[in-house]
Amino acid sequence: MTASLEHAKELDQRDPLKHLRSEFIIPTKADLTAKTLVPKPENESSHEPCTYLCGNSLGLQPRRTADKVAAHLAAWAKKGVLGHFTEHEDSNLAGFLHTDDQAAKLMAPMIGAQPEEVAIMETLSANLHLMMASFYRPTREKNKIILEGKAFPSDHYAVESQIVHHGFDPKDAMVCIEPEDASRATLTTSHILFVIDTYASTTALILLPGIQYYTGQYLDIKTITAHAHSHGIIIGWDLAHAVGNMELSLHDWDVDFAAWCNYKYMNSGPGAVAGLFVNQKQATVNLPALEAGEEAYRPRLAGWWGGDKSIRFSMGKHFIPIPGAQGFQVGNPSTLAISALIASLEVFQLTSMAALRQKSIILTRYLERLLLDSPFERECPYQIITPSDPAQRGAQLSIRLMPGLLDQVLKQLEHSSVVIDERKPDVVRVAPAPLYNTFQDVWTFVNIFTHACVKALEGYTNGRQKTSGRKGREDKGWSQIK
Fold it and tell me: Is 235 helix (H, G, I), strand (E, B) or coil?
């Protein structure tokens, strides 16, 4: 393939979504090193953008975010408590009381859900706890939770603490899926199904990631969900790295519940308010049964914001949940945070997830091919541990460096104003986001990255380890993943 800068620019010119980049504030090289937020006198490089490929960790700020947040602050300033019920002709934000509903309706198409199946609330970890409080109903015979062996630490902590909370021992009740071949970093669907089969008779819940945060592997949500249900097992998904990245059909796939954060590919700011999906069949409210004092809805940890809106301010002590995901809300969500999320969702409305996914596949494949067409003849100092099949990955590629090279490579990338993500001891995660990243971004990264590897190799003379296998790609190291 052609690996020139000119070719990258040509690909950008042909990109039908190139106009969306202007919707975002791309930090400049000067911004990254500035010691103040207020800009100093301009210099020649002050407007040159950095190379930002870190949307899998924190997405960039949409230009409309500041205006949306300012509109919310103005409503608060001018209306005070009346802002809960007041709409304004010069703002499309709902009153504070309904801002979460507004965001949920915008979010639903992003994940393939009915509007009533979505709630905008809490944080990812808090929502996982709320879901397990409702869906993890262990018995002496069935108390196991199946999760991925290298789950994101917060997921692992949440599962372990829920098991302990119910009086069971995680050593017995927590089943961690490990690959059949420890030399590989990814899980096959067939092996996941095998583990479910093996422990089905004693399993109360399955919790898996849509995309594995370290390797970037995308799991087959539809197939795994159907298999769990064939055994009568509830299954939930952590979609932190999938929402805004992949085309999802949670309702059609019959997912029981899912939770995600909105600060990665959803570009809603650090610690943004999170999202929750609860399948409508799991969130019904039987009013006649409720009136008769019978069990009328799924047990949950309840709070006033999950109660029937028509009587929310009556201050009664009888909890009647909102049908759907919003019935699992606990406290009043931050409308300030939701206004930032709405700004991002409006940008997504300018295109479709299908179009974004199509660009993402092409952009990440371009990144992969440039990395595999590396200048290293005898040995390549890195391997791509993310699956090569586009159907098994999102935007992210995870690249494992030879031991001892990471710090030097990171230093060179930082010096060149390239922003990526690293995971010790030796992995860099690179995620070209189709909303704002370009083919030139990818070309620039690979050019700087490979030169950084050359420099790091020159200084690596003691304890040098050889790499093996096909140049640039080797799925090994599950035991080394942290």
Answer: strand
Candidates 249, 254, 219, 209; CA nearest to 111 is 249
Distance CA 191, CA 210 (A): 16
Neighbours of 377 (CB within 10 A): 7
Q: How far apart are CA 8 and CA 51, in angstroms?
A: 14
d(CA 46, CA 179) in angstroms, rounded, equals 48
Q: Are the CB atoms for 337 and 72 separated by under 8 Å?
A: no
pLDDT digits (tens, 9 = 90+) for 14-60: 999 999 999 999 999 999 999 999 877 665 457 899 999 999 999 99
**Residue where the block lists tokens 């210099």:** 43
Identify the DSSP state of 94: P
6: helix, strand or coil? helix
Supply 39's token pair.
Answer: 């800009």
Residue 345 CB burial class (10 angstroms; 0-12, 13-18, ≥19): buried
pTM of the model: 0.94
Within 10 Å of residue 19's Cβ, how many Cβ atoms?
Answer: 10
Number of DSSP helices (H) and strands (E) in the chain, helices first: 14, 13
φ, ψ of residue 133 to 5 degrees: the values are -60, -30
The answer to whether 398 and 216 are in contact (CB under 8 A) is yes
Give the β-pairing of 118-120 and 275-278.
antiparallel
H or E element in which residue 336 lies: helix 335-348
* Segment 302-356, tens digit of pLDDT: 999 999 999 988 888 999 999 999 999 999 999 999 999 999 999 999 999 999 9
Max CA separation in the chain (angstroms): 78
Helix (H) or strand (E) holding 237: strand 234-238
pLDDT exceeds 60 at position 297: yes
Strands 51-52 and 144-148: unpaired
